[in-house]
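Quick one: Riboflavin biosynthesis protein RibD from Leifsonia tongyongensis, structure tokens please.
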Amino acid sequence: MSRALELAHNGPATGINPRVGCVIIAADGSVVAEGWHRGVGTAHAEVDALSKLPHGGARGTTAVVTLEPCNHTGHTGPCSVALIEAGVARVVYAVSDPGHASGGGAARLRAAGVDVISGVLADAVDDFLDDWLTAARLGRPHVTVKWASSLDGRIAAADGTSQWITGTAARQRVHEQREGSDAILVGTGTVLADDPSLTARGDGGELLAAQPTPVIVGTRSIPSDAAVFRHPRRPILIATHDVADVLRDLRARGFRRAYVEGGPTLVSAFVAAGLVDEYLIYLAPSLIGGDKLALGDIGVATIGEQRRLDIVSVEQLGADLLVTARPRRAPASTVKEGV
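--- reply ---
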């Protein structure tokens, strides 16, 4: 399964399909084929691996795959059927497919007499597939919110200037994160105030190979000569203040990963609505003061309502810190005592 997970990393990180790896093992324990999914319309990992074997070469083997084999016909046929028809004797997978249409492959395999084992390295694969699983389970893109601020939480000086709070290493990391996202979201206020290009760029200012689609949220008009209209991808304008509607729109377009850069009005709306899956908070070793805060009202009226986060990692980038955090999940059962 560790090898299957390595193979899964070869697949595209954006788009609606998951990254999946598969290893096929003979009865003597030797690896006879490997495969991974290369994106929409291409063979799924199991079929990719099977295609590397001669006719009948998979009979009696074990297929180890990171995600439960699919059970539906989309751009390609169901992998569960392909495994059955190839004569695979056992299927081992890590994480169940939560899709209403695509799930159920394990049950189909068992009904055909295939031995099925699930949950192998499930935590590692679940973490790897976090963005895709969020989209599949919740019907919306995985949402990452990013901001850069001083240590006292300010994103700009009193006169509105904000370039640059963080240093070059932190800013380059942001561009790499943009490149790994389907969409980059800002509000109309940010476009009007800062005129950002919203591109993903390299150290020398060159455009990176993959570019996120810019999404402008809000009801104010944007000048036709705004920099965002020179983006390699056509911007999407969504005239609403309802961020849940925004995510439904993006999901319908096939977007899996949404990168929310701001400003504070849009970021606060996502936080208040409980629609953030990951926080990327860049902290510069400086103090600014004033009222230009990274977040506005997020619905916290009393300290007991504060939104708790779990720190995933803290990384130093030049003089700055990158804090990666996720919303704290409530335990299945909670005992309130002395709180």
